[in-house]
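check this one:
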Amino acid sequence: MKDLPLVVLLASVLATAAPLIIAALGETITEKAGVINLSLDGSLLLAAMLAFVTSYETGSLLLGFGVGALTGGAIALLVGIFGIYLGQLQVAVGFALTLMCRDLAYFLGNPYSRLQGPQLLAWKIPLLGDIPVLGPLLFQQPLVVHLGLLLIPLSWWYLYRTGRGLELRAVGENPQAAYTRGIDPRRKQLLYTLAGGLLVGIAGAAFSLGIKPGWGRPQGIEGIGWIALAIVIFGGWHPVKVALGALLFAFLQVVGISLQGIWPGVPAQVFQVAPFPLMILALLLVNLLQRQGIKQWLERRPALALLLHQVQGAPPRALGRSFHPD
C-alpha cells in the first residue's frame, strides 16, 4: 500500500525531531540537577564532525556514535569541573565552550567537507514494519528515532519514579538540604552533567550520520543547540513536555519545507528560519505569564489558571548556582 502523504509527513517529523529530543532531554537531566550547560550548540557541532570523521575513516557507524557521545561527555565534564568544583559562572563557561567548539569543529572538519560517508539508514522491523500507517510511521525509521522515543518514558520514569531521580531533583532544588541528608550534591551534579553531555553527543552524531548526513559549512544544525535550550524552558523542565516541544519545532520545520513547493515565489530562507521566531515568541509568552500582574489576573480565572499550570513548569531553584559545603 502506498504511504499516505500525512503518514510521510509525520514520519519526517519524527526523524527530524529525534536528535533534538535526545539533546533536549540530556539538557533537561542536567538542569534538573541544578547545572546549566550552555555549550550545547558547540557540542552538537563538534560531536557531529568527529562522529562523521570517525565513521568515514573506519567505516563504522557504531564507532562514530561512540566518539560523538564521548565528545559531548568531555565538553560537559569541562562545564561541570569549572562550574561545579571551581565555582566559575556556569553560563560564562558554557558560552565560551560553545564558541570554541564551533570554531574547532569547522577548522578540523574542513578537509572532510562535502565528502560522502557512512549513513544511518531506516530499519524496517520485521512484521511490525508492514502494519498500515503505524508501520512506516514508527517501525521503518532509523534506530536513533527509536532511541529518542524510548528516552521519553525512561527519563520520566527515572526522574519521578525512582529514588535516584528523587535525589537528582533534590540536588537541583536544595543542595544544602540534600547535603544534610548525606548526599554529595557536587558529585551528583557532575554525574548528571556528564550523562546529559553524552546524550547531546549522541544527538550530534545522529545529525551528521543520519538526519543531515555528511559534513560541511554550513552544516545545517547551527542554532539547534540554542533551540534545545529554549525547548527545555518551553517544556517546563518536564521530559514529556520537552519532547512535545521538540516535536512541535520539528513539525514547523517539516511543514516549512513542504510549503516551499506550494509557494515557490517565497524565498526558501523564510521557511527555514520561520520556526526560530515562533519558538522565541513562545518563550516570551512563557516569561510574560510569570509577571505578577498576569498571575493576579489568572487568580480570578481558576479554570484558565489550572490549564496553564499543567502546561507551565518552574526551573529548579538552585539552577546555575555553585554549591560549596561548609
In short: The two ends are 67 Å apart (CA to CA). The CA atoms of residues 295 and 317 lie 19 Å apart. The first helix runs from residue 5 to 32. Residues 5-222 form one domain.
